[in-house]
């Protein structure tokens, strides 16, 4: 079944009957995106919650100096969106780009609202997603203020174990808040310590 990954994701938080699964999957739009394409760019209004079924997305911002700051990655089984823009329906600041050929399932904000009316337990599911996102964002902020680069890298490895060997070092460095050069030196030191 092409929807098994997303249905398993949902089953961690709510139980759906077969009829409810059919209603939910009818609201999803499947999309395949080539590597280095954008799902969302800075200034767009985010209209979809994006669920990754294969490939990988990254969410990032670009500062006034043109430096990219990676906020999150979304490997298979993960959701991603510009939460501010999705909720407020105002222009966002997040760029969401494919790192490789990627397949996603899109749930529009409009269809999400319809789901809440038809299957009220989806309000619980998406509340849990938003709460988890808030907790992760807060933890990242605390980590960036209080942990060393090595500790932040170790946290990255725990959060994204499947991505460690697949992502360019430059993007991991951006995620943990260091330059690629510093990251390369730090990893060399960590390898020698082992």
UniProtKB/TrEMBL annotation:
Domain Cyclic nucleotide-binding: 32-115
Organism expressing this protein natively: Mucilaginibacter pineti
A Gene Ontology molecular function term of the record: kinase activity
Annotated protein name in UniProt: cAMP-binding domain of CRP or a regulatory subunit of cAMP-dependent protein kinases
Keywords, ordered alphabetically: Kinase, Transferase
Keyword Phosphoprotein: no
Organism domain of life: Bacteria
InterPro entries: cNMP-bd_dom (IPR000595), cNMP-bd_dom_sf (IPR018490), RmlC-like_jellyroll (IPR014710)
Keyword Kinase: yes
């Amino acid at each position: 079944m092409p929807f098994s990954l997303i249905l398993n994701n949902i089953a961690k938080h709510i139980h759906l009957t077969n009829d409810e699964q059919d209603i939910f999957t009818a609201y999803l739009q499947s999309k395949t995106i080539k590597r280095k394409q954008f799902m969302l760019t800075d200034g767009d209004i985010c209209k979809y919650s994006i669920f990754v079924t294969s490939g990988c997305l990254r969410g990032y911002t670009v500062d006034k100096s043109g430096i990219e700051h990676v906020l999150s990655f979304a490997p298979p089984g993960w959701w991603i969106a510009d939460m501010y823009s999705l909720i407020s329906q105002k222009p966002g600041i997040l760029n969401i780009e494919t790192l490789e050929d990627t397949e996603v399932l899109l749930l529009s904000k409009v269809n999400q609202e319809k789901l809440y009316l038809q299957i009220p337990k989806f309000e619980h599911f998406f509340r849990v997603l938003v709460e988890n996102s808030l907790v992760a964002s807060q933890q990242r902020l605390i980590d960036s203020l209080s942990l060393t680069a090595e500790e932040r890298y170790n946290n990255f490895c725990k959060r994204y174990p499947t991505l460690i060997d697949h992502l360019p070092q430059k993007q991991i460095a951006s995620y943990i808040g260091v330059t690629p050069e510093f990251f390369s030196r730090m990893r060399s030191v960590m390898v020698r310590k082992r």
